[in-house]
Amino acid sequence: CYTAIMTSKNQIKAAKWLLRIGLAFVFIYAAVEILVNPENFLKYVPSFVTHTVLVDSFLPTFAIGEIVLSFWILSGWRGRMASMICFLILVAIILPNLSYFSILFRNVAIALGALALFALE
Length: 121
What we know:
Structural class: mainly alpha
Strand content: under 5%
Helix content: over 70%
Number of helices: 5
Largest sheet: none
Shape: elongated
Number of strands: 0
Oligomer: single chain
């Protein structure tokens, strides 16, 4: 019984780490791409954002926020909150861009990974 409990705890711990690493990788990769090739991301910025702030300042700020979020998610500190923010960001990217769903469909799996981490934390 003790061995089963320890194995289960280790499996949960491993699952959390794999999800954290996967989420951090996705957000860091996207942030670097935004900083290097911001023009590739202009079409994904919702119109309510472009009407509110300058896109030239929004994209780098968003990228830096993604990097900060990546390190937060890796730290494990307040993991439920960090994973929920990841989930909400991904939903906020997917929903206004349903016309690009054939490209963004992968974000659904990433968002659900963030939700899985939320459930495990």
